[in-house]
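Hi R.,

Here are the chain sequences for the assembly we discussed:
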Amino acid sequence: MGKTGKILNLILPILSILLIAVLWTVSAVVVGDGLILPSLSETFGALVGLIKSEGFYTAFFSTMIRSVVAFSISFALAFIAALVSYKYIYAKKFLAPIITIVRTLPTIAVVLLLVVWTNSKIAPVIVTTLVVFPTMYSELSVAFGGIDKDALEMCKVFNVGKKDRFFKVVLPQTAPYFIAAAGSGLTLNIKLMVAAEVLASTARSMGYLLNTSKIYFETATMMALVLFTLVVGLIIEGAFSLLSKKAGRFL
Amino acid sequence: MIEFKSVTKKYGDKVVFTDFDLEIKDGEITAILGENGSGKTTLLKMLAGITDYEGKISVGDRAAFVFQEDRLIKNLTVERNILLVAPTADATALLNEYGLSGYGKRYIKELSGGERRKVAIIRALAVSSPLLIMDEPFSSVDVATKQKFMGKILKERENKKNTVVIITHDIFEASDFADRIVVLSGGKIAFDKRDFDRVGIREEIYSLLSKRR
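And here is the predicted structure of the full complex:
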């Protein structure tokens, strides 16, 4: 990449964030009502207030823990399902309708049902696991499908052991895709978790804070919570993207 | 000794070999020639055990293989590609020997086509197997390196009585390098000769292959 390319890579994202900020500011001035659309400064003020409050950290970490638990379950299930589908074509055919059904589940209805069947802490975990699973399955299936079959055949001819085949060929070739899938999956998981917590009225959660702000017309706090969730998502996705690039440096 | 006995091979409805028989003696360098689609690569794949067939093939020794494609592992460095199949080999010395000094730590994407080919051949030679199978190994290798590889293989054969099977389209390569030349056509042996005159046999094979076109 040339010097101009590097500078553009740095400047363009900053310009796009500046454009959003300008549009937000102009819209807030045009609307002229902080209850409907708070200004940037009002939102940042609310964000600072949130960060200083004790309840916020409890809510944030409990949402994050639930997200990580749900994501780990869906990733593990998707990994097993994708691996079995890669190895056995009949397993893939068997799993296809199940994946389609899970993919088309009406999320809101499922959250409400799960609240009845379980409780407001568990329901968001189950629903995000179910919603993220098909996406993870698709991405991990693509990763397994990309394994170099010629290379595996070569290993067989040269009597390379199964352990070496897995750790030196299969895992390094799939790891960049796994890491990228994990980054986008975890970000999606956090967004879904907050939505599910709102619906399930999960106590001490980001969703609960969002719901409470809505009830008291604290639009600036709502925007601050959305902004915070967005930034956390961006950080996670960026970190995983860097890791993925590092793991795939040979590509 | 390698022995094909009543071997039949089909790809779907397409029959490549029917009741095919061939014997290759230990310590012999056999060049297999033939037009495209005559079954040369299939023959080697059956030898390597990477395609199914009916009949019997006895190979005996574990083979080292130079595939038609390089089949190098892109996530491993050049050195690690060699050590993956030959853990005890001196990869650095082998790379130095074939003009690839300093290439050990490079990834495959950093190599040219010819360099990849060299690494694929070095990898097979690093195994030091009594049986070396090569599918058009020198197609993208420069003449000097090709001579070096051929010299090394001939020396190994002299010292260890290795068996070598090579598929090639190059009549000169076959006549200079091999003890025996087999020409395949339509899944059958159309020509098979040992102890030949290196110049005369070129004319003979050229005329045979020309007639079949």
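Residues 1-32 of chain A form one domain. Chain A has a mean pLDDT of 92.

Let me know if anything looks off.

Best,
T.
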